[in-house]
Design goal:
With about 260 residues, this protein is α/β, with parallel strands linked by helices. The protein contains 10 helices and 8 strands. It has one domain: Alpha/Beta hydrolase fold, catalytic domain (Rossmann fold), CATH 3.40.50. Helix 2 crosses helix 3 and helix 5 runs antiparallel to helix 6. The longest helix has 18 residues. It is globular.
Length: about 260
């Protein structure tokens, strides 16, 4: 597994496929494989798929200190520069969307096309800040942490569809790890509104109409802040990459592979 030094971190990433670079950036607590592993093979026939784990996930290591969105963006920039030459397509989910937008704003030379999924621009929305604060407050009770995260990450319809056994499996996999708690702190602090006008890449913003983690109004606000972006809203809870995996892949491939 390749590793690149970026700031105070040694960032691990995986590479598969052939073609122009396509980087998938994961969200809070769950690493690249947990977020994107089930979808990545849909792109490897025409893209070199790059799956980095930033600080707090996978085998990426750092000093364990406070994280900022700029540090996480620097880690993704380091991976892009290390993995190949030329710009990449960049797809981010949740916190990964915030990080990807930051990368595109700070280094427009590295991003061809940009997909921002279930993202946001600011930490001062009352629902978002209370959600993250409540989630963090359950850190001393692993079951409560997992149940709260699961309850808000998926729509009611999806939880009913998958049934109790799979719901319990998701709860057990959603743990208050050190990485997850560090990412929640980033969510509570990060404001990228000043960066968004600097994005030059053609951008698709994907909203989730049943999102109970990041309200869909914040997805729409993100789209409005990125000049010339295209906005598409799917009938899904926050974790659209699982709830509507096939539909999401079709949407993203249509945007990235249209020429």
């Amino acid at each position: 597994m390749p590793t690149v030094s970026a700031g105070n971190a040694n960032v691990h990433y995986r590479v598969n496929g052939t073609g122009p670079g396509l980087v998938f950036v994961h969200g809070t607590g769950f690493g690249a494989e947990g977020t994107w592993g089930h979808l990545a093979e849909n792109f490897t026939d025409s893209r070199t798929v790059i799956l980095p784990d930033f600080s707090g996930c996978g085998e990426t290591t750092d000093d364990g200190g406070e994280l900022t969105v700029e540090q996480l963006a620097a880690q993704i920039i380091g991976v892009i520069e290390d993995a190949g030459d030329g710009p990449v397509d960049l797809v981010g989910f949740s916190l990964g969307a915030v990080v990807s937008a930051t990368v595109a704003a700070l280094r427009p030379d590295l991003v061809r096309r940009l997909v921002l999924t279930a993202g946001w621009t600011r930490p001062d929305d009352a629902y978002l800040s209370n959600h993250m604060t409540t989630w963090k407050a359950t850190r001393g009770d692993a079951e409560a942490f997992g149940r709260f995260g699961t309850l808000t990450a998926f729509s009611r319809d999806f939880l009913a569809m998958i049934g109790p056994e799979q719901v319990e499996a998701i709860v057990k996999g959603n743990q208050p790890s050190e990485g997850a708690l560090r990412h929640i702190e980033v969510n509570l602090r990060t404001d990228i509104r000043d960066l968004l006008p600097k994005i030059e890449a053609e951008t698709l913003v994907v909203g989730c109409g049943k999102d109970h983690t990041v309200p869909v109004e914040l997805h729409r606000e993100l789209a409005e802040a990125v000049q010339g972006s295209t906005y598409v809203e799917l009938d899904s809870g926050h974790v659209v990459v699982f709830e509507k995996g096939a539909e999401y892949v079709e949407l993203v491939k249509g945007f990235l592979l249209k020429d």
